[in-house]
Amino acid sequence: MDQGSIARILKQVSGGEDEIQQLQKALLDYLDENTETDASLVFSRKFYIAQWFRDTTMETEKAIKSQKDEDSSEGTHHAKDIETTGQIMHRAESRKTFLRSIIKTAPSQFSTLKMNSDTVGYEDACLIVRYLASMRPFAQSFDIYLTQ
User: In which region does residue 15 sit, left (phi positive, over 0), alpha (psi from -120 to 50) or beta (all else)?
Assistant: First the structure.
């Protein structure tokens, strides 16, 4: 992945969110801007929002499950695990709040958002999609599947 381009896109996109949220917002802005030229982008936008919401929910469930597993077994790193679980839960809730705010945005507000935002180009949107896809669990474990 071209980390220089990712860093450039992050500088271009305004926002105090974490890196993933900034990239998601940039991709959604690109999709919003180009829905007039390609109607399938409306479906793509809804699909990405639903998939990211599902991923956040799954991440939260895994954190809760790992915390319960640690509670049932004796662990010396118990306090550290609770802290990381809390951080994961907080990050997941902020991502869910972000996605809910995107969902609640009415289509009439998209045109005003487009005027106020600097959207990325097609090549940058493709790079964002590849970058976000590489962060998914299947992409991260693909080498394991391939060796087996």
Answer: left
